[in-house]
Inverse folding.
């Protein structure tokens, strides 16, 4: 066989591509001119210019030739509030005009989009608020004579809640934060009190955002393109510049934890080193492990035993500060600290590995989890050279943390609680 010929309703169309090695043929037939018809398709095998045999498919129904696209939103994006669903849809033969476009979200029909037959464009204003917190798919379906002909779909849309248009500290809703409001808001956050406007449990970033707005001239506006609290931005000029800096660079917030002291406490030190310029307000909070007993909190910080959280600020400046407190752990208690600082509404994690107990009960020389007279006897024997200590035992016996086991450690041992 030399080639094949294609006929539709007896009319010659073209020569399909033919592979003699595999005896396969193929052809991309544009069926649009035949939309709405029932046709027969014939493929004729040819050798030496002679038609040898025909292969025919009869009674082939040619449907509408749809074209379309769902332009907005696009897959794998985030949406919020009112979302404009837009796209285009048409039937190219002109025999099956689109009557409407149905919109569905997660398989549920929302209604029909507005459709312009002249431009083939459709649009639908979708209120996404009932789907807040969900991941959804949207489908647009052109309709002709009540029949859904084909689907255009976008998937994996994350619907986020619409933030309130006013900052929660703005208690009189006048789009301005004054000193009395930011002071009350900061005090409620520091004490862990519930706030009447959501979020009732005040996040630290909301506090420094409120202070940032007050420091930037009090008046603020709402930017719906940003997530909270970054959506509340200064609306006034300070001097000749608009303060738009949100995340300070070169900010250092680190923590250290001392060894156990004779009274059983350990000193926690938080070093806050803001950049030289740009910080208008900051605050710090640190959460201690379960079982930690906190005291001696510096800089008017507040400790909530219920949430195990210490809070300092807000500080309306960019000064370096060293914040401290003491903590005592019950015997055998181990756990990590977790802290953050917030500058101008942007959070920064507190660095430095801190573990309460560090797996070691100081003074528990024999490592049985308790501090008893047997530990003191073992400590004294080691000091007198009667028995050697293992490295782990020496660490527990070194009460003052100077790297040596000596009589001073025995004296301090007796003072441990």
């Amino acid at each position: 066989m030399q080639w094949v010929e294609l006929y539709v309703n007896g009319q010659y169309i073209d020569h399909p591509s033919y592979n003699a090695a595999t005896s396969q043929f193929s052809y991309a037939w544009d069926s649009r001119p035949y939309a709405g018809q029932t046709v027969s398709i014939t493929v004729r095998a040819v050798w030496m210019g002679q038609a040898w045999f025909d292969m025919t498919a009869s009674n082939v129904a040619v449907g509408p030739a749809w074209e379309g696209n769902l332009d907005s939103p696009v897959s794998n994006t985030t949406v919020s509030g009112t979302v404009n669903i837009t796209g285009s849809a048409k039937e190219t033969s002109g025999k099956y005009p689109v009557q409407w476009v149905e919109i569905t979200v997660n398989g549920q029909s929302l209604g029909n989009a507005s459709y312009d037959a002249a431009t083939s464009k459709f649009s639908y204003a979708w209120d996404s608020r009932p789907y807040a917190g969900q991941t959804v798919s949207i489908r647009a379906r052109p309709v002709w004579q009540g029949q859904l002909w084909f689907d255009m779909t976008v998937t994996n849309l994350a619907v986020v809640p619409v933030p309130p248009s006013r900052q929660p500290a703005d208690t009189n809703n006048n789009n301005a934060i004054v000193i009395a409001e930011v002071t009350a808001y900061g005090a409620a956050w520091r004490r862990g009190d519930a706030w009447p406007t959501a979020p009732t449990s005040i996040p630290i970033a909301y506090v420094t955002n409120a202070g940032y707005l007050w420091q930037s001239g009090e008046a603020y506006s709402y930017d719906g393109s940003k997530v909270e609290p970054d959506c509340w931005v200064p609306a006034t000029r300070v001097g000749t510049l608009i303060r738009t800096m949100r995340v300070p660079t070169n900010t250092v917030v680190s923590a250290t934890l001392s060894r156990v002291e004779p009274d059983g406490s350990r000193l926690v030190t938080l070093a806050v080193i803001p950049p030289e310029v740009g910080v208008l307000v900051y605050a710090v909070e640190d959460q201690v492990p379960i079982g930690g007993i906190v005291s001696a909190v510096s800089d008017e910080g507040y400790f909530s035993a219920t949430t195990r959280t210490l809070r300092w600020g807000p500080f309306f400046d960019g000064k370096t500060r060293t914040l401290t407190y003491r903590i005592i752990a019950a015997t055998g208690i181990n756990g990590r600290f977790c802290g953050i600082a917030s500058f101008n509404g942007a959070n920064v994690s507190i660095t430095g590995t801190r573990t309460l107990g560090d797996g070691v009960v100081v003074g528990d020389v024999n490592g049985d989890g308790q501090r008893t007279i047997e530990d003191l006897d073992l400590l004294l024997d080691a000091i007198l050279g009667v028995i050697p200590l293992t490295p782990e035992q020496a660490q527990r016996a070194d009460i003052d943390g100077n790297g040596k086991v000596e009589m001073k450690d025995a004296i301090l041992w007796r003072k441990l609680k």
